[in-house]
Amino acid sequence: MVKRSLPAWGLMVLSPLVAEFLLGNLPITMLPALLVLAPFYGGAAVLIRETARRRGLGWGRVLLLALAFAVVQEAFVTRSLFDPGYAGMALSGQAWIPALGISAWWAVFVLTIHAVWSVCVPIALAETLASAPAGRWLSPVVAGVLFVLGAAGSALTTATPYALSAPQIAGSAAVIAALVAAALIPLRPGGRRTGSPETAPDEGTGLPRSTPDEGRGRLTGSPRRSAPGGGVVFCASLGVTSAFWGLTMALDVLGAAVTVAGYLVLVSASLLVVRRWSRGGGWGPVQVFAPAAGAVLTYAWHSFVQPPAVPAPPAVDLLGNAIFTLAALVLLAAGWRRLRRERPARKGSSTCSRTTA
């Protein structure tokens, strides 16, 4: 029981470490904040992961649940979606949408980074390192309780005078409900899926599900083409995520409207390409690990140019960034080593039609 839940507790710590510390947003001196951030970020990541694996959901639906979490965080916990002066930023001048009372730039930016880096990336890394990547790690009830407690703690420790209006609360709740419903409700009449929940691709996105034996998102059936190797996927991820942050860093030069357009092009193209690639033969654990690895390295390099949100001596901040980057490299090396060690055994697996590229 305890051994089975260890990956969940690891994910619970990994999520905020990636989301805030590897990013460079929080300096190493703020590590005690994990007492609140781990139940909040990590509780959400574990809850989403457990829900997805128990219901046989693909990564596309995991992303929808991750977006729902991001809306919870930014609408209700930090309230940054609606606060035009959040963290000293003049968001009302950054592609502000008066009818919604939000900045299009900030909304796309902050929801994307939390959905991808705070939830999806840590889940992919944790499952790569776990001995039972598709297994049940922790009760969703336990994860849910921790998430609620973490959210409450984060809200109480977030110093913002902004008060949400009734329409803002109702609108945010409706968006969250819609995202969760889209992730959980089957698209076909009667909720029937092709094949077993564990082996069939997600009917709404074409993205792969985890299987009990493969556990990291390989497709079954006769593919029309071969999926790219892990190196190609890794480089594509590193390039796209670096471009995302490059656009962010050039916001003052490009302007909010151009930056938002760039975000949307990158995100849309990435989803379409991954959907196409994941339907190819040989899409497996390596190709699921690779985009997470690329995204992690992007956060690592970005940490050295990111001013910390909490003041810290420059030398201490630099040292912390170096430590978190080194830890990330060690984690990625461990994941790659595990995949290399398991690959020969997986070549003879009867659950997939092609071997991992």
Written account of the structure:
With 357 residues, the protein is mainly alpha-helical. The chain has one domain. The chain contains 11 helices and 2 strands; from the N terminus they run αααββαααααααα. The chain has helices at 2-22, 34-55, 59-77, 104-129, 140-157, 166-184, 230-249, 251-254, 256-278, 285-303, 314-347, and strands at 96-97, 102-103. The chain has a two-stranded antiparallel ribbon. A hairpin with a 4-residue loop joins strand 1 and strand 2. The longest helix has 34 residues, at 314-347. Residues 190-223 and 345-357 have low confidence and may be disordered.
Topology:
Layout: H1 2-22, H2 34-55, H3 59-77, E1 96-97, E2 102-103, H4 104-129, H5 140-157, H6 166-184, H7 230-249, H8 251-254, H9 256-278, H10 285-303, H11 314-347
Antiparallel strand pairs: 1-2
Helix pairs in contact: 1-2, 1-4, 2-3, 2-4, 2-5, 3-4, 3-6, 4-9, 4-10, 7-9, 7-10, 10-11
In percent, how much strand structure appears in the residues?
A: under 5%
Secondary-structure element series: HHHEEHHHHHHHH
Helical content, roughly?
Answer: 55-70%
Mean pLDDT: 88
Q: What number of structural domains do the residues give?
A: 1
Widest sheet, order of strands: 1-2
By helix and strand content, what is the structural category? mainly alpha
Main beta sheet: 2 strands, antiparallel
Rounded to the nearest angstrom, the distance between the terminal CA atoms is 34 Å
Number of helices: 11
Low-pLDDT ranges: 190-223, 345-357
* Cα radius of gyration in angstroms: 20 Å
Would you report the number of β strands? 2
Shape: globular
